[in-house]
């Protein structure tokens, strides 16, 4: 091959390609690491009769369509603000619906006179406090924030 400043063009090409690939891998790995959030979990009042819940039942509860636990205890739903990252993550990853779909379901229930809004909390600490002290309560938090005062619901 032809030499360019004492280095063959082919060798220069190989070095450039390998540096480019390394840069792409590092950028991709870095952006992937930045987007990893702790997993969200559904939590309930500690003496809730069930520790396993189906995704469809969970959707019905958070959609304000299911208002009693199997043991006939009234359900009390607690949520974060619509723009909270936890609310977004729980809605999308656990319930597998968009937050605006939940809001539309709540609005429909309230405006038709068939239901009410879930109770909104301002912080993780308030969520934990409300769930731990309210019989029939259900909510959500990041798994790394769970305390012994609440029960994690396994989703099947």
Search tags:
156 residues, alpha/beta, D-Maltodextrin-Binding Protein, domain 2, 2 domains, six-stranded mixed β-sheet, two-stranded antiparallel sheet, 8 strands, elongated
Notes on the protein architecture:
- This protein is of the alpha/beta class and about 160 residues long.
- It folds into two domains: about 5-35; about 40-155, D-Maltodextrin-Binding Protein, domain 2 (3-Layer(aba) Sandwich), CATH 3.40.190.
- The protein has five helices and eight strands; from the N terminus they run E-E-H-E-E-H-E-H-H-E-H-E-E.
- The protein has helices at about 10-35, 55-60, 85-95, 100-110, 125-135; strands at about 5, 5-10, 40-45, 50-55, 75-80, 120, 135-140, 150-155.
- It has a six-stranded mixed sheet with strand order 4-8-3-7-5-6. It has a two-stranded antiparallel sheet with strand order 1-2.
- A hairpin with a 2-residue loop joins strand 1 and strand 2 (about 5-10).
- The protein is elongated and about 85 Å long.
- About 20% of the residues are buried.
Give a brief rundown of this model:
It contains five helices and eight strands; from the N terminus they run E-E-H-E-E-H-E-H-H-E-H-E-E.
Write the layout of secondary structure elements.
Layout: E1 3-4, E2 7-8, H1 9-35, E3 40-44, E4 52-53, H2 55-62, E5 76-79, H3 85-95, H4 99-111, E6 119-120, H5 124-133, E7 137-142, E8 151-155
Parallel strand pairs: 4-8, 5-6, 5-7
Antiparallel strand pairs: 1-2, 3-7, 3-8
> What is the CATH superfamily of the largest domain?
Periplasmic binding protein-like II
CATH class of the largest domain: Alpha Beta
Provide a count of the helices.
5
Q: Which topology of the largest domain does CATH recognise?
A: D-Maltodextrin-Binding Protein, domain 2
Mean pLDDT: 86
**Shape field:** elongated
Overall SS class: alpha/beta
Order of helices and strands: EEHEEHEHHEHEE
Please give the number of β-strands. 8
Q: What CATH architecture of the largest domain do you see?
A: 3-Layer(aba) Sandwich
Sheet of most strands: 6 strands, mixed
Structural Rg: 24 Å
Q: Give the fraction of residues assigned to helices.
A: 40-55%
Task: Show unreliable segments.
Answer: none
Span between N and C termini? 63 Å
């Amino acid at each position: 091959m032809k030499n360019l400043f004492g280095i063959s063009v082919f060798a220069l090409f190989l070095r450039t390609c390998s540096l480019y690939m390394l840069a792409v891998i590092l950028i991709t790995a870095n952006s992937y690491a930045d987007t990893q959030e702790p997993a969200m979990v559904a939590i309930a009042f500690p003496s809730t009769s069930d520790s396993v819940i189906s995704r469809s039942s969970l959707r019905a509860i958070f959609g304000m369509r299911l208002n009693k636990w199997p043991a006939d205890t009234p359900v009390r739903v607690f949520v974060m603000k619509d723009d909270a990252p936890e609310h977004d993550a729980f809605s999308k990853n656990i319930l597998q619906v968009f937050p605006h779909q939940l809001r539309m379901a709540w609005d429909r229930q309230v405006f038709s006179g068939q239901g009410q809004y879930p109770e909104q909390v301002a912080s993780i600490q308030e969520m934990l406090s409300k769930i731990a002290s309210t019989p029939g309560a259900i909510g959500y938090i990041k798994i790394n924030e769970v305390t012994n005062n609440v029960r994690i619901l396994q989703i099947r």
